[in-house]
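Could you show me just one protein sequence together with its fold in token form as a worked example?
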Amino acid sequence: MKKTVGIHHITAVAGHPQENLDFYTKVLGMRIIKQTVNFGDPNTYHLYFGDEVGRPGTLMTTFPSPQARKGRIGGGQVGVTSFAVPVGGLDYWKERLQQYDVSIMTGERLGDRLLQFDDPHGLHLEIVERKTEQRSGWTVVGLDGEYAITGIAGAVLYSTAPEKTNTLLEQGMGLIKVAEEKGWVRFQAESPNGQWIDVKREALPVGSMGAGVVHHIALRAADEAEQQEWIDHLHQYGITPTEVRNRLYFQSIYFREEGGILFEIATDGPGFTVDEERKHLGQSLKLPPWLEPERENIESGLLPLQVPKAKGGKG
């Protein structure tokens, strides 16, 4: 059976770019890995947040725009994005979020204690503890590196056809069903980051795209050869993905499954240092070669950003 090793990244629509950047860097303590534009809509930023080098499985990315209308979370979407912290970190994060006046709720799902909250534009997030020896290589002032976010833990899917979504995840994508209770089903992959996907068993009405809503969820392929295998594999399930699209930092294909959720399969490489040294990641606007001739026009249409300065792994 062909299988993905886990989540590569999750991409959401956001509101004001500076508010978006400040929350994920200053509050959540993630590093801005890349400051670029939506290649399909160069008038909109595409910001990448992750660990110190933006490893697959640590990446949260956003399309922020001050003109973005408010979305509605519902069927055919990622309902919640979950971040992992080391065991013992939940109480620390509860106190930290309260210091930033972030409204929080505690919850539980499939045996996990959860700290649930929204980002400034309404995106549903949560923090969960995970046993791991891994620690983030990036911290910011005031954040205890012992409890820093280590990456994406998983995602909660809201489907308009949950059984069909479940079948695709298990049989088509090779994830293993590991738990099922109280209206939830959990599927698991092998990667230590982006390991699990929970599906709500109840079919939900279709949501609408906009600020505070996940645009797509990306799963991992090791390289372009494996990505081609995925294209052939998906055809066996009646799915015709898009052509391969060059995202500069990885190669991508996209498809929408029967429950309405937009999936991407992204290659692990070449990574984010192809156009920027590691120590300067995320510090300036980077454009792909085909958009570079339009830099002046693109920059004039974007709000300037104040980006935290890199300090050798310490924010």
